[in-house]
Amino acid sequence: MNYRKIAHYLGIILLTEAALMLLPVAIGLIYHEKATASFLITIGILAAVGWLFYNRKPHKNNIYSKEGYIIVAAAWLLMSAFGALPMFISEAIPNYMDAFFETVSGFTTTGSTILTEIESLPRCVLFWRSFTHFIGGMGILVFVLAVMPRSEGSSIHIMKAEVPGPVVGKLVSKVTVTARILYGIYIGMTVLLIILLKIVGFPVFDSIVTAFGTAGTGGFAIMNNSIEGYCNPAAEVIISVFMMLFGLNFNLYYLILIKQWRSALKDEEMRWYFGIIAAATFIITLDLTVMRHPFSESIRYAFFQVTSIISTTGFTSTDYDMWPSITKAVLLMLMYIGGCTGSTGGGLKVQRIAVLVKNSIRSIRKAANPRRVETIKINGRTLDEGIVSGITGHFAMYMILVAFSIVIVALDGYDLTTTLSAVSACINNVGPGFALVGPAGNFSDFSYLSKIVLSFNMLAGRLELIPMLMLFSKIGISND
Amino acid sequence: MYIIIVGQGKFGSTMTAQLCNESHDIVVVDINSDKVTNMVEQYDVMGICGNGSTVDVLREAGADKAKLLIATTGSDELNILCCTFAKKLGTEYTIARVRNPIYATQGQFLREKIGINMIVNPEYETANEISRIIRFPSVSSLDSFARGKVEIARVAIHADNPLCNMKVADVRKKIRANVIICAVQRSGAVTIPDGNFELQAEDSINITGTRSEISSFLKQTGVYKHRIKNVMIIGGGKIGFYLSELLSDTSRNITLIDSNLKKCHELTDELSDVTVVYGDGTDQDILEEQNIEKQDALVALTGIDEENIIVSLYAESRNVEKVIAKVDRHSYSILNDIGVETLVSPQIVASNLVTRYVRALENSVDNSQIQTLYKLVGGKIEAAEFLVPENWAHDTETFRELDLRPNLLIGCIIRNGRIIFPNGDDCIKGRDSIIVINAGKSLKKLTDIFRVG
User: Fold this and answer.
1) Which pLDDT tens digit goes with each residue over A67-119?
2) Interval A247-261: pLDDT, tens
3) Among the listed residues A57, A469, A67, the one whose alpha carbon sits nearest the alpha carbon of residue B41
4) Could you give the CA distance from residue B172 to residue A311 in angstroms, rounded to a whole number?
5) Do B44 and A173 count as a contact with CB atoms less than 8 A apart?
6) Which residue in A150, A156, A384 is closest to B41 by CB distance?
7) Domains, chain B, with CATH or none
């Protein structure tokens, strides 16, 4: 393995993180906060470590699949480890393990928090906490690719490892340009959301951090009661729509930009996605209306919660833990479905679900008529059998990891709903779960072991399992 | 530049690698999805799987906005069809690989009426290159600049050569010939030497100069070889056929060996001055029987690289003066070190031609000034001829004052038809032609010769 090249890349990423941390410093200076110093210390550490790594000039420039995965996994771990430092140093979160959990939750756009009291934290820490969502949403390595002057052919291995979804297509022939287009769309939509939130009456700071949380499909809010705390129905609708949009494949926005409306509208994954949202919203609205909520309120709450969970954002506009079981079951299912391929959302991804469903139907047909030959089509194109088996394999791996994690987290002795939903919320990068980890609760009471397992789940979920599992497996450590 | 490359066989993938290296926007198309995946993972290109001769696939590849399309599928007809479609869809320039000699003669019609801008026949170009080497046997390869005024030649130095253990600075004092040593290849690594560089036995050097100066240099160093009269060609494929044709015009004795009787008959019909021998040319006994010792040159052109290399090594051991082997798998870097003096690869020859065409296109776009470009030593070194613009700002600064990039050398300056071999006191003036030898990142425009930053 090309260790030097890996170190070189990690150096670039740490230096980039140092540069990005200048933004919270600026916020701290604006609000004259003492916590700013903790960011400056962290920048110093990051710059020093990053520079050491960066100076490991590689002998060979070649990186292959394996190096790509290792770089991505190691980068996310290191970024979270260093990103936790400001919160720890400024004593906003006095326990390093908690700070690490919070940062992992930020970068992986999960939004699970260990904080009970959020509103009193320094503004610069709050900004950084939400900014990690924004960085993690599109991925820091894609960002690095976007700012790199010239990409090598092998950088596709990095992009593949970081961008979610079974098949990663480039928009244009160059990786660098593709990354720039993705970030362009991402930033453009975020700015639009900031402006809209400002118009409906959010304070500037709040609209910025809320937009970060929405864009990355993260879910950290700076109110203890999440979006509910603002009591602003117009903002709730705007945020729901944007959560839904950030859960869509960004390639579609590119198609719209280059005026290929028709192929964008025909996208099969998008149709599944909207179909699932509509069905889930319908069921929950019906259920809430039956439970004697006014209809307009029901549909607003339902739409907000459905888009929030399926895009794996995890904002809440009401305490859905009080809702009846059927709605919670629907929400749990949505957690696992997640956003679309190439979006900022987590979960299994709609396309995988579509393929899994089609594959199941095919299996039944095949059982009835064993000689039957049938291929699985997405967007009218036959999907390679290798990809189909990759998707079923991914699903199996996902479920095995969920099962093991539940057993370990259950050691803490909480009820099964809490345990199961905590693992589900973390691995799918949603944020809040049910019962003790529901909208009204948080993750602070878990043991260190559980927090480590949940952090691992968040990273594994965000990076689609393989990078993290490879880093901690024999393959990742061995030198060949 | 937006380039579509259809077909990712040996030639297509070599082309992709070369053009990708020059940071063009490339879309590759192939019907085989494995090949596409492989290219996309190896190079920074976009891949499309499908038949490149259908309008849908071409449209998906962006033929309407592409500047250039290169069709390199295995079939001539498909390539021509593909170029025709692309042209109608709006691609500005098209290049087709056409190998069948029957079509090759219709080049003018294809160019003028069908609108295919360039037709490449890798086998013919390879034969042409080999025939040039055989006509000037003292060197292992030869490329020309400034309409043949200046040439760049590669020569291997053996232990009996007076240049051994000589410093580059002393070479010009001791040997009275106006040439510049512009690159030295030693055990796989290539250096652009400065004055203190010491030459050693088994180095391979590239020299620039006029043909007569190079000849005189070679005579003084004892590597000059006499005219080649007896040539043995192993393998009667397309290259073998073209080569025999190209060489048979003068009084040479050509022996062509092929192991297919039917082909031998065809070849005898087509080539009247050539001795066609039926037999396995890789068999030592047959080589001996055909009098390999008396040959001045042997060209190994069978379809199998390993056989070509073994035959060549055997020929060298039998003291054949000039040995040339064809290799298709040129990516193995050890090939330059195994002892065969001259290796020729059809893909490299053809892709060099196309790259040169692409550069010329780019020049016409950005007004940059590259006239000719060669890739030497397996692509590790580039020799480019630049035309200096009239308003060149640095025309009073001598080379001593100019801050040139490392690993770069000005091979010579051609001013008003006169050739100048520059030293530190010379300077570049407007309307000069200069030849730049460069081992670093590709040069795109003349100002790239300066150190960055």
Assistant:
1) 888 888 999 999 999 999 999 999 889 999 999 999 999 999 998 999 888 88
2) 999 889 988 988 888
3) A67
4) 73
5) yes
6) A156
7) 2-120 (3.40.50.720), 138-221 (3.30.70.1450), 230-348 (3.40.50.720), 354-449 (3.30.70.1450)
